[in-house]
Every structure is written in C-alpha cells, then in structure tokens.
Design brief:
- The chain is mainly beta and about 100 residues long.
- The chain has one domain.
- It has one helix spanning about 10-15; strands at about 15-20, 25, 35, 40-50, 55-60, 75-85, 85-95.
Length: about 100
C-alpha cells in the first residue's frame, strides 16, 4: 500500500511510534473481498522504532467468541525500510513461521 497521498509524503521519522489497528480486510486470489481476518472487532498494534525495527500484534478483539470458534491471532517482527512509496518489512520472527 502506498505511504503517501497527494499532499503528504511519509518519511521514516513520521512513522516512528505505536500505531493502533483501525480495520483489517482480506482478499482472495481472485481479488474479491473475503471475511475479515481478525473477526468483526479486529484489534492490534504496530510499533516502529528509529533503529528500523517493527513489531506487530493483531487479533480478534471480541471479549467472547462464539462457541467452538478460535481466536485469530498473528504477531511478527523484523526490520523495516521505506522504499519509495512502500514500507517494506523483512520478517525475522513470527508466530506462524511459514510467513517468514
């Protein structure tokens, strides 16, 4: 996803800090919108540091889940860099190691 709009370029300094997830969407291989990956009340934080490290924690934030449902959860960390209009992360640790 591009990191700038028509009026503001994003620099690393403007990204440093802790960010709160406000929504999460997913798409299937054909580009159609899929079910929300972290349920209807997604919750998460991303931390970006001046040393170029990133940590992300995402989950289904509902206080209670329907019986038999598993709570969706993901976490990862690694180095990040701004490359043109994109934030690029090199993941070095993740809950699901297949995503590394």
């Amino acid at each position: 996803m591009p990191l700038k709009d028509s009026s503001t370029e994003i620099t690393p300094e403007r990204l440093f800090g802790t960010w709160r997830l406000i929504s999460a969407t997913a798409f299937d291989a054909a580009g159609n919108e899929a079910a929300p990956p972290y349920g209807p009340q997604a919750m998460g934080r991303v931390v970006l540091t001046p040393s170029g490290r990133l940590m992300a924690v995402l989950c289904d934030g509902r206080p209670e889940l329907p019986e038999g449902a598993a709570r969706a959860y993901a976490s990862y960390c690694g180095n990040f860099a701004i490359e043109g209009e994109y934030l690029v992360t090199t993941v070095d640790a993740a809950l699901v190691t297949a995503r590394m």
